[in-house]
Automatic annotation (TrEMBL):
Signal peptide as annotated in the record: 1-20
All copies of domain VOC, residue ranges: 27-167
GO molecular function, one term: metal ion binding
Transmembrane annotation, as ranges: none
InterPro entries: Glyas_Bleomycin-R_OHBP_Dase, Glyas_Fos-R_dOase_dom, MMCE/EMCE_epimerase, VOC_core
UniProt-recorded name of the protein: Catechol 2,3-dioxygenase
Gene3D superfamilies associated with the record: 2,3-Dihydroxybiphenyl 1,2-Dioxygenase, domain 1 (3.10.180.10)
Keywords on record: Dioxygenase, Metal-binding, Oxidoreductase, Signal
Domain of life: Bacteria
Length: 167
């Protein structure tokens, strides 16, 4: 009987732990970024950085107010991913045609979402696209990091820092 109670307690604890680990419906997150100019940011992230637009959806004025996202302002969302995979992290771009925010020089000079990191097999193609589009490098181009990979730091059109790491 004692062993039966111990086994039941272990099973209950294990089931409880499994439920806590499986609380989320997806294993990735979606990141929403408000751009001052949606077209310019979409071009930067797709044509220069190399993300893929995998979807888009509208949020109407009524829904935006009910959800508390805006005070009734409708908007469209462009969904970007590194790979067109249902489990991939979503980078959602949207715009309210707000003026471009002040661009800071370093990530420690502001709060909120400040940077993203993207990992490439090789940085050669993205470095060439950055140069072809006159995107300023904030790092030495590229910086070699201790693990043998290269690192490049740039900013998107609204000043979000974008770290690029790869061979």
């Amino acid at each position: 009987m004692k062993h039966f109670i111990i086994i039941c307690l272990l099973l209950t604890t294990t089931v409880g732990l499994c439920q806590a680990e499986n609380e989320f419906d997806k294993s990735s997150i979606s990141i929403g970024v408000i751009a001052s100019d949606l077209k310019t940011s979409l071009d930067f992230y797709t044509n220069i950085i190399g993300m893929k637009q995998t979807g888009e959806f509208p949020v109407g004025d009524t829904l935006s107010k009910k959800t508390g996202l805006t005070n009734g302002v409708a908007f469209d969302v462009k969904v970007l991913k590194l790979h067109d995979d249902p489990n991939a992290t979503e980078y959602k771009l949207l715009s309210f045609k707000n003026p471009k925010s002040k661009s800071d020089t370093y990530i420690n000079e502001g709060n909120g979402m400040r940077y993203i990191t993207l990992f490439y097999k090789s940085l050669d193609a993205v470095i060439q696209r950055l140069k072809d589009n006159n995107i300023n490098f904030l790092s030495e181009e590229p910086t070699h990091i201790p693990d043998g990979r290269r690192f490049v730091l740039v900013q998107d059109p609204d000043g979000v820092f974008v770290e690029l790491i790869g061979k």
